[in-house]
Amino acid sequence: MALIMRSNQSTVSEFLLLGLPIRPEQWGIFFTLFLVMYLTTVLGNLLIILLIRLDSHLHTPMYFFLSHLAFTDISFSSVTVPKMLTKVQMQYIAITYEGCIAQTYFFIFFADLDSFLITLMAYDRYVAICHPLRYTTIMSQSLCAMLVAVSWVIASTCALLHTLLLAQLSFCADYTVPHFFCDLGALLKLSCSDTSINQLVIFTAGLAAIMLPFLCILISYGCIGFTILQVPSTKGICKALSTCSSHISVVALYYGAIIGLYFLPPSNSTNDKNIIASVLYTVITPMLNPFIYSLRNKDMKGAFRKLWSRKTGFSN
Question: Residue 12: beta bridge partners?
Fold first, then answer.
């Protein structure tokens, strides 16, 4: 391991990722499992993007946001899973200092962007159910594009702030990261510099990028629930709920993992718990999203049937 000496401190040029807490005899099974999950994530979300692009009935604000979410899920998994698959096949995996900083940046960027896009989808459902007559006026194409663009800018700014502060830290002796990717929290624990500013930014940025969007989602669904209760017919209630069920499932998966990771009381196996929760929202949630939106969404199933009929030459 090459070390660059600077005064009384040294800066590592590489980190070692310990990876998942699995036994060597289980590496082959887990490699196959995570490879299948990663390929499912990529292909499933690519299918969603393709269906939305080809079917004119899906050219609506909700599916515009969904296409961006699908792209974000592919990117989010691609930041960590390929490196994790390499680690499963090897005893350890080294990552350069620059590569570690870059991985941290893109991990934070796509995690925050996921949060913002899920919030935009909740807002879309709020307008569709609570203000149906003004839906097309409020959710204009220009507004949707602007909301997505602002989400990209804020997410990239938050990620850049974290990584710039991280790049200012010194790492003295310990260069072993007890994780399967360059997690910001794990890296801060390895630093021999003062990380109080980093911790403060994590707290404030976390409120802005995670908790504030989550609060907006709760408020949106609170308003939706109030509106649904005023619907006199059971059929109307079921129709309103059907437009939200897929999104509610995604919200539960995404924020459930984050709350389990950052807000539940620590246990004796804190590090293993963190790794398992990270696997949940970096690997499993992006993989499940295509199934949630295809199996529980009539529009997506209809678009898939039309695409299948067009490719095979059969008609319904």
Answer: 3
**Residue 96 bridge partners (DSSP):** 14
CA angle 91, 286, 63 (to 5 degrees): 155
CB 76 within 8 A of CB 87: no
Amino acid symbol at 78: S
Angle at 181 between CA 74 and CA 50, to 5 degrees: 5
Degrees, nearest 5: CA angle 36-37-39: 65
pLDDT, tens only, 225-263: 888 877 666 565 565 566 677 778 778 877 877 766 665
- Farthest CA pair distance, the chain: 75
Question: Hey, how many other C-beta atoms are within 10 angstroms of the C-beta on 24?
Answer: 7
pLDDT digits (tens, 9 = 90+) for 276-290: 778 888 888 888 888
For the purposes of burial, counting CB atoms within 10 Å of the CB of 249, is it exposed (0-12), middle (13-18) or buried (19 or more)? middle
Say which residues have a Cβ less than 8 Å from residue 55's Cβ, sequence separation at least 6.
Answer: 303, 306, 307
Amino acid at 255: Y
